[in-house]
Write the structure tokens for this entry.
Amino acid sequence: MELILELKNNLNSYMEDLKEMNEFFYNNPELGNEEYLAKEKYCNYLKKNNFQVEENICGIPTAFIGKYESTKKEGPKIALLAEYDALPEIGHGCGHNILGLTSLGAFLILKKYVEEYGGSLFLIGTPAEETNGAKVTMVENGLFSDMDVAMIVHPSGKGHYRSSTSQAMEALKFKFYGKTAHAAGDPYNGINALDGVLTLFASVNALRQQTLSTSRIHGIISNGGLTPNIIPDYAEAKFYVRANKLKDMEELVKKVKNCAKGAALSSGTKLEIENYEFSFYDMITNKTLSNLYENNLKKIGVEEIFEDEGLGSTDMGNVSHQCPSIHPYFPISSKEITGHSLEFAEASISEKAYEGMEEAILALSMTGIEILKDKELLKNIKEEFNKK
Ligand SMILES: [Zn+2]
Ligand SMILES: [Zn+2]
């Protein structure tokens, strides 16, 4: 109890700063890889509070790392992750404004305990979660390979949700090439690239019945020709293909590609397939770490933790294949609201959001302290990870 009070007092001294930053991000939403204002705000704040700051991480201009290492002794390496990208039109409809600040809050609080018990602390600013997830590049550069744990807590509508799975995802672009002709005068001299796209959609729709009920294939026509009286010589579709497990997704991707090859054959078009964004792995929650976080939520009075279905994808999945990770959710509203909406963005600056944020920061901090103090606990967390 004493510790909780101590942490609450400590957090109180930062709360006004966190709120100010949250509203600044809300009022200045930036798309993925364009989060220059947000990055600057974070870096300036970290420098002001005497943390080491590295910028331009893995060649990504809007990524950063805030660092604190114990001068006295070695110990666990704890990574807290911050996202701060927004969505087109609806701004912070995924609440990444408040997401990153939850990690910052825990980072500020944990400094004292790293000083006391040893170890090192990282606040990693990871751009573009909604598109070309920077965590993928960071994982490829080995940034997480020697972390002992990585934690991130995402906002949700009502209630705390358990860290569960997320879907593996691949982003595919299908480019069909044909030949122009007058659509009324001599259509028989043309090769209709749009037919390639339309047949692809029809084949994918037929494929749906043979997929797992949890798999998702969703696409748009990103180029369907110029005008009705020209047979289009170019047409293009973008798809996301998702499944709960990486292996299932890879199988499904093969089938979707076959749909496109069939569509090219029947329409007489030439086909090119490319990945237009990074692929995300499925999220593997470290149960030992997740239980620790949940017990700490209960200690501060959270009564119920809900089960998450794990639909949707995140680049945190890639991190979870590198080191023990969790990705739970904290409430920002007293009613159910859907993500990626204007309503969700508005809720992210409400009093309810700050209550949820405080709970998440306290539970993250308590979890961090236990990891720093208890070597046996970290051993169990890593044993579980190594088994997988
Ligand atoms: Zn989102
Ligand atoms: Zn999100």
Remarks:
- The chain is about 45% helix and 20% strand.
- The CA atoms of residues 86 and 92 lie 5 Å apart.
- The two ends are 35 Å apart (CA to CA).
